Amino acid sequence: MIMKNKMPCCSKIYMGFLSVFVAFAVFVSPGLAMEKITIGLIPEMNVFKQRKRFVPLAQHLSKELDLKVELSILSRYGNLKERFEQQKFDGAFLGSFTGALAIKQLGVVPLARPVNNDGTSTYFGYIFARKDSGIKSVADMRGKTFAFVERATTAGYIFPLAYLKRNKVLSLDSYLKGYFFAGSHDAVIQSVMAGTAQIGAAKNTIYERLRSANPQIDRDLHIIAKSPRVPSNGLCVRADMIAPLKERILRSLLRLEEVADGRAALKALGAKRFVKTTVEDYKPVFKLAEEAGILIEHYEYVNK
Amino acid sequence: MKKQIILAFAVIFSLFGLGAGVIVYNMMNSASSLRNLIDLHEIEDIRQNLNLRVQKLQTYVNLSAIDFSYNIDEIVDNVQQMEEAAQECFGCHHKPVVQEELIYTEKLIRDFQEKLSFLITSRSDVSWRRQNQQQAMKIADTINMHVQDMVTDAAVTLQQKTDAAIEGIERTYSLLLGTFLVTLLLAVGIAHFLTKRLVVPIDELLVAASKIADGDLGHKIDLHGVDEFVRLQESFNRMSASLVEKEVENVELCKNLKGRIRELHRTQHQLVQAGKLASLGKLAGGISHDFNNLLCGIIGQISILKRAEIDPEKRQSLADIEKAAMRASQLVAQLQTFANQRDWQEVAVNINSIVIAAVQSVQHEMRKEVMIHMDLSQGLPTVVGDPDRLQVMVRNICENAVQVVYEKDDGLVEVGVDSMLVTADSEISLPLVPGTYIKIYVRDNGKGIPVDIVSNIFDPYFTTQKKTERNGIGLGMAISYVIATKHEGHIEIASTENVGTTVAVFLPVSGASMGSDYNESFMKNIKYRQV
Fold this sequence. Notes:
heterodimer, A: alpha/beta, six-stranded mixed beta sheet, 13 strands, B: alpha+beta, 8 strands, 67% helix, rod-shaped, disordered C terminus
């Protein structure tokens, strides 16, 4: 009689349970091990409004991911790198330039960005001036005060810098009477409206939003130049975030329009939906930075 | 009364309901005020929260960039919550004035947020920063003052509402107490009124009922009061009158019953007596006939012997024998009378004559003078009957009376005749049909007859006398009984020991009228009264 070595029935059951447990541990438990994730927000506009815009999205993601999604707003663009490096952020909604910076310097991974109500998922920058200042071109800007947003914004600095350089303005200090960094796009618009600066640069989405709320903007200001389109502020996450979580976050963002909470979050953001974003989408930013004479990989900045 | 009770309770319940309604209304108002106050106190936290956060605003304005950098989330949260606290106020305050103030506060907060955001985010242009800082400070001051004013107003309003609520509670308490007291007084008054209206007539009824129970049948209550009690009183009076009528009827019935019982006893006695007499009569009849035949033979032989020549001694013996035989013959005749073997005559008889003849017959045979007093009435109606037998009847009775008083020195026999009318409502009951009767009485003052044997007087061979030649064998009263009843009359005896005896015979007169209410009941309760 030949005795065959057969695995006993109970052993098979045991192995089955063990496999399930390991798979659970590998694929699920990391998510469970993380109780919260912190998403950073850049101060592109009034920080209070900025925070308020993203609260519905954070609440929706908390439900979808079964994690607590906290928002943390930066007081300035410059804190971004520091926060990522200190592991206080798991991700952030980054502007086009800060996104490009983070991609090059921190290796963050872009996941998705919102699509505007007009169907575009990009934005561009405006250079605008007071109508009563008589400024219509770069030549008129000599000896005037320019309000920038931040050294790490595309529409608020990189674009106007590239535009001025394209128009042979190599030194801001010598060409302009003065310039300052208002800190946010709406602050730039407000400062030009107030007459603190004669020229300003801000992203079109915020300009349009303030303009629709305040008709005085149309009466007082006029657009001098527009930048090429660059990707709108999208969510970039840490390079070391586990893939399953990245996947879940991406899936949640791409399916926002399918659920009521998601639609409410999109409405608060002023967006139609989210689309997948890759490093390729940031090429226009890299080009603008090059035109402005900035090496992104080594770009260190301090606002004046 | 029912209406009054219903009305009274309706008044009480209406008053109570009205009071309760007002109290409940006030309580609801008070409860609502208290709820408002509780809500206002609860949202005091909101006001305090708002106040606290507003006071922090001014500190934010003076923060450095580094402070902003490290505390921005906290600052943003705080300002956000301040905005939300102001928003919460909208949920409670609806007065236009307060709404306007809240709207203005919200605007100020938004302006402050804008300025603060500029301060947080901008890093250059000191003058621009300073300008924004001053503006922010000014806005913060304005917000602070405004919120303080609102908080103060709210506190004053809260105090006013608290006072009003306390006042409302006290008013409710007073209303409750007042309603309770008024209702209590009213209830007591109504209870007293109703009690009086109920208890007094009931007490009267109880007293009246007690009186009736004590025998005052026919007692009536004065009618007074309300419908139900008047009806009750009327019913009571009717009941009382009915009791009297029933009592009279019952008395009447009782009398009738007693009469019937006496009648039954008498009839029973008579039947028994008749039975005895009938039995004995038969026996006597049988014997008397044969004995009479024997006596006839003896008397005939004696007559023959008397005609023969015999010596005087033997002639005397014959005379004695003839006397004895004649006496025996009389006795037989009595027996035959007793047995109804001889024909009865029906002729109009003058009782006075019969009595006189009977008394004379008795006196003739008495060896001693006995006082016999006769009381005869003139003009009496006649009696239809057998004069010989009637005389025998009277004679037998008189003989008995004479025998009883024979040995007394003051012995007296009274014999009387009178007429009397027997009616249905006469006091003394006699087993006689209503009508006119002749009463024959024989009264002696002898030793009387003991009570236990008086009922046997009319039994044949019953005698209270010693057996002597003079005294009979005890058939006299039995024969008198037969004769009286044969004449549709009645004989009765009344005796008192050591006083005397009275024997009375009642004989209907010829053409005696029967009463106008002659029917089955006339035999009951037949009384007699002297005419």
